[in-house]
Amino acid sequence: MLVSLASFSDPTIFSLACGALGLLVGSFLNVVIHRLPKMMERDWQCQCAELRGEAPAEHEPLSLAKPRSRCPSCGHAISALENIPVISWLFLRGHCSECSAPISVRYPIVEALTGLLSAFAAAHFGFGWAAAGAVLLVWCLIALTFIDFDTQLLPDSITLPLLWAGLLFNLSGTFVDLQSAVLGAIIGYLSLWSVYWGFKLTTGKEGMGYGDFKLLAALGAWLGWQMLPLVILLSSLVGAVVGIALIVLAKQGRNVPIPFGPYLAAAGLLALFWGKDLTQSYLRLM
């Protein structure tokens, strides 16, 4: 055990180990991204049926563990050799081994992104609790980003544990002191909550969902209230640029909702790695 811990304290070995772990977790995140919204939809349908006094519709059991991953076209169960992160997709040339149906390129992208960001977090923070927390935050933000892109949902089952995890890591001041973390959670939630109600009272429309409040509260719990202006500024800038691009280039209507969670997640990662440097650069420019 002492030998293994000493090995992991080497920056290169630690980064490679976290990158390899990130690849494996990325494969699991693909399952989370695909199944968690479906599990939530089933729960809502069951609740609605109970309120109507009806028996819930029967479905095949669905969880993050069961059933085994399979091809949506032919139902072929994915074997262990076909489930090696990135490598299997390349070996299969992006097609099912049974029916040759195309496999989305997003699967290896999620796996590679998770592995690379995990390795970078390990290299950035070094062996210790800060790296463990950063890697956990990376995993959750990747899952939330792709779920929000697909469904415009930010599940409470991820955002709320992420908030508490941020406070837990900062009990000993891993990223910020506990007072800054608590204030970050409170201010993060209330800031977007205020924008939501101000926009709704002014226009009669909902400009964002409650999941965005909870995600910013979680980021505040991890990074402290001091980083919230930077997170909001970066996410708003990126969101505005992407939104304008979609309207102009993709001719997407202005009434088509654009998920805000991915931009909050991206801004949160930028603040995690370079928040202090970005803030100091901004203040020098001002």
Describe the structure.
The protein has 286 residues and is an all-alpha fold. The protein is built from 10 helices and no strands. It has helices spanning 2-8, 11-51, 87-91, 106-125, 129-151, 156-169, 178-203, 210-223, 228-248, 261-285. Helix 4 (106-125) packs antiparallel against helix 5. It starts with a helix and ends with a helix.
Please give a quick description of this structure.
This protein is mainly α and 286 residues long. The protein is built from 10 helices and no strands.
Helix fraction bin: 55-70%
The secondary-structure element order is HHHHHHHHHH
Instruction: Categorize the overall geometry.
Output: globular
- What gap, in angstroms, lies between the N and C termini? 51 Å
What percent strand?
Answer: under 5%
Calculate Rg over CA atoms: 21 Å
Main structural class: mainly alpha
**Low-pLDDT segments:** none
Query: Main β-sheet: number of strands, strand sense, barrel status?
Result: none
Q: What does the average pLDDT come to?
A: 88
Please work out how many helical segments DSSP would assign: 10
Write down how many β-strands occur, each being a DSSP E stretch of 2 or more residues: 0
List the helices and strands and how they pair.
Elements: H1 2-8, H2 11-51, H3 87-91, H4 106-125, H5 129-151, H6 156-169, H7 178-203, H8 210-223, H9 228-248, H10 261-285
Keywords:
286 residues; mainly alpha; 69% helix; globular
